[in-house]
Design brief:
single chain, Alpha-Beta Plaits, Molybdenum Cofactor Biosythetic Enzyme, Chain A, 3 domains, elongated, Maf protein, 39% helix, six-stranded mixed beta sheet
Length: 432
């Protein structure tokens, strides 16, 4: 019983709003063993919406439509659904009263134009909206069950959980032997490109295998997605676990977490687990590393603080970097970034220190040090001594991208050091 998700709205097709509803619904449908054939987005155009509804209903057993149920002239989902069904719009008295009660509870009179929200196509039924005014709609076209919800995420989610999911479950139970279990998981990596990760995965990415393995790139992270399908839930779980282990074995220590785990969360967890502390001394990243670390709840147990030493004078005054060192090698150099990390370690008393200095652009680059040139320092205490590494990276992209990737490189290098792993696994940085 495959499903299709249809999202309505000019704001979506114009790119003014990101459609988070489709991702949320697809995830919840897959948990029911229902795969989505398609995510379709159409503008506020009555004929286009009606045609999309007819086309989707011919291909799917379930169609969930979000958006276009408001009271304004550009909310066209109701009349478009009626056109697709060949039905008339009729007013539902119970829905009118529900909308009126919503406004009375807030000391307001219901605007007359809001009544249009209570006009579903004939033969359809209304779905109560417990979070707003626009009711949802349940209808049928051919052999397809159609559910329509508002586009407001909190209204859609409440409607789905209260009414739509139970209805889909009940419908799925009628197809004995057809329902499948679909399980998904994700392994997040950082430090290598998508093509390198794909090469490491090899035959695991064959499109005719189950579980299915694929990759996604977002903000510098390469995530390996695994989808396991089987009629037997236990078998689906076993297959997923086996493939996840194979993926981890293939990609090695660059894999830092599963599903929604972030790199900074994993780093903080490792620091706290080993009772170690961290400080930062940032130039080109301007406090991004400290910001990422302190975004994690409970990070105060591991993060002591840090410095943003953008000017050379600040590097000298607060981190003890010799001005002669800066004059000789330049602020963007291995000796200076190491001196920054060592100075931060000394001033803070932390166990680890990360430092950055680079050319983030768009200007300031030279032939010797073009835009994207970044040095990362890592210093740590071990047996009464202070050790340090210097890493060079040459990153592509605009200023925001270079700064972001630099911060993530630094965190991944720290994570590998905490694990006792070879930092050479990180393709985006070379140890000097």
């Amino acid at each position: 019983m495959p499903a299709i998700l249809l999202s309505i709205g000019d704001e979506l097709t114009l790119g003014q709003t990101v459609d988070t509803n489709a991702a949320w619904l697809a995830e919840h449908l897959s948990a029911l063993g229902i795969a989505c054939l398609e995510h379709r987005t159409v503008p506020d155009d009555l004929d286009v919406i009606a045609a999309a509804i007819q086309q989707c209903a011919e291909r799917a057993g379930t169609l969930i439509i979000t958006g276009g149920l408001g009271p304004t002239d550009d909310d066209l989902t109701r009349p478009a659904l009626a056109k697709a069904m060949g039905a008339e719009l009729i007013e539902d008295p119970a829905s009118v009263e529900h909308i009126s009660a919503y406004f009375r509870a807030r000391g307001r009179e219901m605007p007359d134009r809001t009544r249009v929200q209570a006009t579903p196509p004939q033969t359809s039924t209304m779905i109560e909206n417990t979070r707003g005014t626009a009711p949802g709609i349940r209808a049928s076209l051919g052999g397809c069950d159609i559910f329509v919800t508002p586009g407001v995420p909190r209204e859609m989610k409440a409607m789905y959980e209260r009414d739509i999911e139970p209805a889909i479950r009940q419908s799925a139970d009628q197809y004995s032997g057809v329902t499948r279990t679909i399980l998904t998981a994700k392994i997040n990596t950082f430090g290598s490109g998508e093509s390198d990760i794909a090469e490491q995965l090899g035959n695991l990415m064959a499109r005719d295998r189950n579980p299915l393995v694929g990759t996604t790139v977002s903000n510098g992270y390469v995530s390996v997605r695994v989808r396991s399908e089987h009629a037997d839930p236990q078998q689906a779980e076993t297959m997923l676990a086996v493939t996840m282990k194979q993926v981890r074995d293939k990609v090695g220590p660059l894999a830092f977490g599963h599903d929604d785990e972030t790199l900074q969360q994993v780093v903080i967890d490792r620091l706290r687990g080993s009772r170690k502390t961290i400080t930062t001394a940032e130039s080109c990243t301007g406090g991004l590393i400290a910001g990422m670390l302190t975004d994690v709840p409970g990070s105060s147990a591991a993060v002591l603080g840090g410095w943003v030493t953008y000017a050379n004078e600040m590097k000298t005054r607060y981190l003890g970097v010799c001005s002669e060192l800066i004059e000789q090698h330049g602020a963007v150099s291995a000796p200076v970034v190491e001196a920054m990390a060592r100075g931060a370690l000394k001033q803070s008393g932390a166990d680890f220190a990360l430092s950055t200095s680079g050319v983030a652009g768009p200007g300031g680059g030279t032939d010797a040090k073009p835009v994207g040139t970044v040095w990362i320092g890592l210093a740590w205490r071990e047996g009464g001594a202070v050790n340090a590494h210097r890493f060079f990276t040459n990153l592509a992209g605009d200023r925001a991208t270079i700064r972001d990737r630099s911060a993530k490189c630094a965190l991944q290098l720290l994570r590998l050091q905490l694990m006792g792993q070879d930092v050479e696994h990180v393709k985006w940085a070379t140890r000097a």
